[in-house]
Amino acid sequence: MARLLYSVRVTGAEYVPPRGPVIMAPNHTGFLDAPLLMGTCPRPVHTLAKKELFRGPLGWLLHGVGQIPLDRDGPGRGMVRAGIGVLDAGRVLVVFPEGTRGAGDFAELRTGLAWFALRSGAPVVPVVFAGTGTRGRTLGAMPGLRSRVEVVFGRPVTLPTGGGRTRSALDAATEQLREALVAHREAVASRSEEKQ
């Protein structure tokens, strides 16, 4: 559907491991990001999405396609079990590391991404969206019809095993992932500037 409405360009899909558990770590600037990732990832994805989306018909649809409700104020055991279950079954879990829409620059990450990566040993694939929306919370922030939008997958990052699950290990893993995600975003921005 996105390809009917927008000019979609996908690069780096070959970096997504074809089997086994994988964690996708996308930036998040617009409403289109999660649906676009669902439609362009070479494997089916299970996204941690804010629980407010799971009301009414949209909630039935999201549950039906395997998405996982997330209470951003206090992630519960059910969400954690569901996320780990996805990875233990060798599937793809999407964690928006910034926790919400924003500048999409990976400047500040929550620790959930690192926790899932340390717990599962799954590689983390950085994903950068470009053109999916400006910073904002209204539907007016959606890209215009036939606008160019990009999905750029990066090389997987695997955290060292045996690092422990202490707070210091979690903070160190979060910083390692933040550096890798920022580097991927900067590389994408640099390529875009060269083309202009």
TrEMBL record:
Entry-linked InterPro entries: Plipid/glycerol_acylTrfase
Any one Gene Ontology BP term: phosphatidic acid biosynthetic process
One MF term in the entry's GO annotations: 1-acylglycerol-3-phosphate O-acyltransferase activity
Annotated Gene Ontology cellular component terms: plasma membrane
SMART domains assigned: PlsC (SM00563)
Keywords of this entry: Acyltransferase, Transferase
Coiled coil regions, renumbered to chain: none
Domain Phospholipid/glycerol acyltransferase intervals: 22-132
Protein name as it appears in the record: 1-acyl-sn-glycerol-3-phosphate acyltransferase
Organism: Jiangella asiatica
